[in-house]
Amino acid sequence: MIDPSLPILPADQPARLDALEAAVRARSDLVPEVGIVLGSGLGGLADDLEDSVAIPFAELPGWPAATAPGHAGRLLLGGLGGRPVAMLQGRFHLYEGNAPGLVIQPVLLFGRLGAKVVVLTNAAGGLDPAFGPGTLMVISDHINLTGLNPLTGPNADAIGERFTDLTDAWSPRLRERLHRAGGVEGVELEEGVYVGLTGPNYETPAEVRMYAAMGGHAIGMSTVMECIAARWAGLEVAGVSLVTNAGAGYTGEPLTHEEVMAAGAEAGPRLARVIRRFVSDL
Ligand code: HPA
Asked: How do the domains of the chain map onto residue ranges?
């Protein structure tokens, strides 16, 4: 039985990635150019994959089955927009009790399999009052408020340096490409700063006001660990938040997981079009 809360140190990652890579290579020899993490409600992009091989998380060494609602929990390899990609349908969240070192393994695996670019998507609450449900926000930067870091502990120099630079963590080049893809598809894209917390509770209205004052535009419970790890491993990172609800307190109504999933279902296909175009025009 896997205990997903057990710490995984950076120095443990190379051996774990050897085992993961071997398990994937037993099923597929596809070398992805891009690795894509599909957040809540965005799993539909997986239907567009051509000639795909699907591996449930629980069939990969050290990975528990996904538990979050709305997350299928599969690694997929196939063609998207004419290019080889790896996709994670679902992800590992901190709020499930997963160790940060486990949360980052999918993006590290993308790199191991050959990907140079990672696309992170998520469902998020709007901190910018102008970002209502259905807003798509290209992530320009993030604020890690989880209090956690996936890179603490002995480093693995074979993967990346001890002190990872995050100046341009969210690649300016890829942000421009996302906007270009949005333009071609006729899909409006905003841009802003993603604030990442562990969850699983939604924020209080006072917290939402504080995070907005701090410079955040959207808030969620994923993504920041994965971005940090991808930069550590030298991957180029792009991301889009799908705003599913106004931040707590803005409307006076309580937040529900159902409204988050419904907004994801409405806006997910728009985001899927942008990502397909982005990948095919890379
Ligand atoms: N807060 C945090 N995470 C979220 C939200 C929110 O309002 N909506 C969707 N994920």
From this structure: 10-281
Instruction: Read off the pLDDT of residues 44-95 as tens digits, 9 standing for 90 and up.
Output: 889 889 999 999 999 999 999 877 665 679 999 999 999 999 999 999 999 9
- Ligand 1 contacts (CB < 6 A) are 123-125, 202-203, 219-221, 244-245, 247, 255, 260
Report whether CATH 3.40.50.1580 matches the domain 10-281: yes
Q: Probe ligand 1: pick from 40, 202, 240, 259, max atoms within 8 Å of CB?
A: 202
Residues with catalytic roles: 40, 71, 93, 95-96, 123, 221-222, 245, 257
C-alpha to C-alpha distances, 72 to 21, 52, 106, 196, 264, nearest whole angstrom: 21, 15, 14, 22, 15
- Which residue is closest in CA terms to ligand 1's atom 6? 125
CA separation for the pair 86, 73 (Å, rounded): 13
Element (H, E) at 106: helix 105-113
In percent, the amount of the chain with pLDDT more than 90 equals 87
Q: What is the secondary structure of 22-40 as a DSSP string?
A: HHHHTT-----SEEEEE-T
Question: How many Cβ atoms from other residues are within 10 Å of residue 206's Cβ?
Answer: 10
